[in-house]
Design goal:
- By secondary structure, the chain is of the alpha/beta class.
- It has an 8-stranded mixed beta sheet with strand order 3-2-1-4-5-6-7-8, with helices on both faces.
- The protein is globular, with a radius of gyration of 23 Å.
- The termini are far apart.
């Protein structure tokens, strides 16, 4: 089928290539003209210079997949597209939007006769070759129109219509919250191994645990690759870990639903801790231990922890 793809970063660009390989014709647009030309040069892809041009290139019912950063970029892009498409057309948000925003957008677009699908998309840079796991919300009618796209992007049994608009991004949010917990558990376990008295080869341990162990996973495969590339001390990698929002939303939703989620919550807080050059809270604890127990304190370097 023919569709439009807006946003040609690591995910969007690879998705265009996978769709093109699957026989789809994809009109592409990005704010960076050089990226448009690069991705648009692939067989089956057509570069466009604006959202107006992209929409005009598509037959009805038009299907446009948006793959831009969550928040204001997604909001602005979808609202502009909603003013360009026609009733019966389909807009798909494949980014990591907050499900509350997706529900609001779905209601807004439905009032204008426009279909909306919120498609939680997992697969990262590996999706081009192995496919993307897709969990999406929307009406049966909208999903029926877009299903050939999902079938091509996903591996076998790798996509699911999880419910109405909002359900897709809700499911992906929790998926990413679970990911936070898994990553933190592996991180803590391998730090204990790394600090131990034994001369362990952590690359081999990661490989070993993927053969019959109950903790085997794709993440362990990736860790084995990381150790092979970087060495087990990971000296070239700074332990600064970002978060893109889904972990925070998962924790807040757990609070709203009165669901205890200590592992996911603590894994999010561990990411915050990773960004501190020096922990003020730890300084307070050290000072208090010195005051009530006379415990020794380590003297900080001059200006340590202060911004340059």
């Amino acid at each position: 089928m023919q569709l439009g793809m807006v946003g040609l970063g690591k995910m969007g660009g690879n998705m265009v290539e996978r769709l093109s390989r699957g026989g789809h014709r994809v009109s592409v647009f990005d704010l960076d003209p050089a990226v448009v030309q690069k991705v648009g040069s692939k067989e089956g892809a057509t570069p466009t210079g604006s959202l107006e041009e992209l929409v005009a290139s598509l037959p009805a019912p038009r299907v446009v997949w948006v793959m831009v950063p969550a928040g204001d970029p997604t909001e602005a892009t979808l609202q502009k597209l909603a003013g360009l498409v026609q009733p019966g057309d389909v807009l798909i948000d494949g980014g990591n939007s907050n499900y509350h925003d997706s529900k609001r957008r779905g209601a807004d677009f439905a009032a204008r006769g426009i279909h909306f699908i919120d498609a939680g998309t997992s697969g990262g840079v590996w999706g081009l070759e192995v496919g993307y796991c897709l969990m999406f919300g929307g009406s049966d009618e909208a999903v029926a129109i877009a299903e050939p796209i999902f079938r091509t992007l996903a591996p076998q049994d790798g996509y699911l219509h999880v419910g109405p608009v909002g359900a897709g991004h809700f499911t992906k949010m929790v998926h990413n919250g679970i990911e936070y917990g898994l990553l933190q558990a592996y991180a803590e376990g391998f730090e204990i191994l790394h600090a131990s008295e034994f001369p362990l080869d952590l690359q081999k341990v990661a490989g070993l645990w993927n053969h019959g162990s109950v903790v085997r996973s794709w993440l362990l495969e990736l860790l084995e690759r990381a150790y092979a590339a970087e060495g087990q001390d990971l000296e070239a990698i700074k332990g600064w870990v970002a978060d893109s929002g889904e972990g925070r939303w998962t924790v807040q939703t757990a609070i709203d639903l009165n669901v205890p989620a200590p592992v996911i919550t603590l894994s999010l807080l561990a990411r915050f801790a990773s960004r501190q050059e020096q922990s003020y809270g730890a300084q307070v604890i050290a000072a208090l231990r010195n005051q009530f127990g006379g415990h020794a304190v380590k003297t900080a370097e001059p200006d340590a922890g202060k911004p340059a």
